Amino acid sequence: MSSGINNIIEKIIQQAEKEAEKIISEANAYKNKKINEAKQEGEQLLQKTIELLEKQEKSELNKAKSAALLNSKHQLLKTKEKVIEETFNVAKEKISKIISSDRYKEILTKFIEEGAIALNGGKLVIQLPKQHKEIDVDLKSIATKVQKQIGTDTTIEIDPNPIKAMGGVIIRNKDNTKWVDNTIEARLERYDKHIRTKVTSILFD
């Protein structure tokens, strides 16, 4: 074989080797690129998964905190209400004792007088609890006092029909178109908000 042919073959082999090296190099570069991309995608997916789990954990924690706070407020309100109700019960017990004392006649007189003035006098009727109908209240004296204060002729008589109440009185006009409920229960109800605010301020502020 001539040297010319050998040179050509050698050049072909060298060219083939260069092409092969180039192909191998490009393949390795492509392989490395894909590996890096896969790593990056894997790291990004891992990071996203971590962030998602952290968000879920934070969300669950916030929910738990909110639930605990809400429960705490609910328990506090229940406790406040219980204490207030107990305070009211104590107050009612004290009122019951006052009703059974000599002071009650004076208090009942004041309740009748207040109601008569609120109704602007005239011909009035009062209703009392059954257990208090025998209390000797001077209705004529009350009527005279009311009349002097408001300048309207006033008379007060007792309705024989009793009312259901722990104490106090209902005052109404003769034709039953106007009345004032001055029973203990009604007065407590009217002052309920004020009393609760006062009790809450004393007990919890």
Describe the structure.
The protein has 2 domains: 1-100; 102-204, 2-Layer Sandwich (hypothetical protein PF0899 fold). A 4-stranded mixed β-sheet has the order 2-1-3-4. It contains 5 helices and 4 strands; from the N terminus they run ααβαβββαα. α3 (139-150) links the parallel β1 (122-127) and β2. The longest helix has 97 residues, at 3-99. It has helices at 3-99, 103-118, 139-150, 184-190, 192-204, and strands spanning 122-127, 154-158, 168-173, 179-183. By secondary structure, the chain is an alpha+beta fold.
Order of helices and strands: HHEHEEEHH
CATH class of the largest domain: Alpha Beta
Major sheet characteristics: 4 strands, mixed
Unreliable spans are: none
Mean pLDDT: 81
CATH topology of the largest domain: hypothetical protein PF0899 fold
State the separation between the terminal residues, measured CA to CA: 115 Å
Number of extended strands: 4
Classified in CATH, the superfamily of the largest domain is ATP synthase, E subunit, C-terminal
Number of structural units classed as domains: 2
Enumerate how many helices there are, as a single number. Answer: 5
What fraction of the residues are assigned to beta strands by DSSP? Answer: 5-15%
Basic shape = rod-shaped
Strand order of the largest sheet: 2-1-3-4
